[in-house]
């Protein structure tokens, strides 16, 4: 066997499908190297207990793939080693599922390795979903000084410096082939004989650092690592890890600690470890501050705006209506103002106004609900805490006007336009045949994606620019592919979708590099129901798919469900004597109250196992005391009907549904 390709997958089904399709194209015309035997390529997919139907997709669409299914997430190193031990190739390629390889990538890489017997491993030029070069394609060993320069930003300030830029070897031309220290695990071509001498991936590493460790051991074994610029792959990146999270900081730098303790001794090891600990605390602190600012900046501005407005209204109403600047009791400042502000902001929070900060409908709805609640509560307050209904109403008007104006200003600062709350429909062009273009438009419609479709660009040079409408395709042909840049400029295109059935991956990457990173690029794999892209290496890719979107999986729904659980648990605890009258199992009822309080249960969840009849997996939620079946009086239903009820509960969830189930199944709250 000439080549064994190993892909470790964890919950990135759509990206995995695109990756496997690109690999299938890349191996289609490969012939055995001299003396390599009759086999050419074998492909392994190791699935680390994904819950997104990845395994079923591979079995259905890629029968040639050798599938290894783990019942837990074993980590990157363990999963790769599983497949390496079963593989038979002279060469082994470790490949990420969120990559797309060119048709010539595998052939060119194998030819280079054959021509360079001293090469133990090979990496390639990688670009992200916007066409930008990924600097981690080539790296230096993380010595203490290199770690220092990276941690304190010197490598970012002087990327081309041979002294400070060694982490990403920025002084080496990305368009030339070089001998390097470290290769990226996203694409790592290895000789089997090299692995036999250096050893497999170190399973002490769970997710990061194993590629650095292996690269280091390959050099120690007497081989060279090469960065090969003769081909390019697309690496969406950011699909498995949220890089702006504390978990990323902890996982990445813990891997660096393992590497330092394994390969360094004495003063060098102590210095390196101290540097890594410094980086952990520095990056963790920066992450906390950044995340706090991102999440809290708008609420803090709202709080200042509302409080300031109430303070102004207090003095204004006292002076011009009561003609007494000191008319209001100081309690208004210390109690009423914070109370009004908190209730308004709380209502905006729970109606999703901060989840979608520029959704003015949610903002106004939240403020109206907050005002209604304030009006209801106002009458129950002691007389000294009821200063004036006029200020409450004027404050509500001010809160609405002020927060809308604030969002308009922020939106203008970010986008340069005043269309706040009005989603911008991107100008879209599709590159492909009329048939594929029609299919893509149908997919966009089924996925409820609103785009301003401008027209189709043909991959062949046969069509003239601005030809009349094609009756068969029902769309306008704008140009042939060689004039795509003109189309982008003339029509102010925001997004380009490439049909991989009609245009090669090599051509797609060339156009991404030519058009630049100012556009959004997506690829629709052949016969796939997904349209995939990513505009940043640090963020999850954008996915258009006709897969069902479950409302219960949204942030607002999960938060409101948890709030309902806690409020109802508190009511149950306070009114336990009343519930004891009709609840069947009192001890179980009390136990459930505390389990809900501590997050171990929810009052309502799915009935039975969590896989609907459609074959899709439901979002994971807490085990429930009750289920949608309890709203039907606990009648006996067949499995198909139960799964359909679960499916509808997840798809159309709202808190009122939970309230209905609890009301009708109250006797079983002690279950």
Main sheet specs: 9 strands, mixed
Number of helices: 21
User: What share of the residues lie within helices?
Assistant: 40-55%
Contiguous low-pLDDT stretches (5 residues minimum) are: 463-474, 610-616
Distance between the termini: 58 Å
User: Any idea how many domains?
Assistant: 4
What do we call the CATH homologous superfamily of the largest domain? Spore Coat Polysaccharide Biosynthesis Protein SpsA, Chain A
Shape: globular
Number of strands: 18
CATH topology of the largest domain: Spore Coat Polysaccharide Biosynthesis Protein SpsA, Chain A
Mean pLDDT: 83
CATH class of the largest domain: Alpha Beta
The whole-angstrom Rg is 30 Å
What would you say the CATH architecture of the largest domain is?
Alpha-Beta Complex
Instruction: Give the structural class.
Output: alpha/beta
**Hey, roughly how much beta strand do the residues contain?**
5-15%
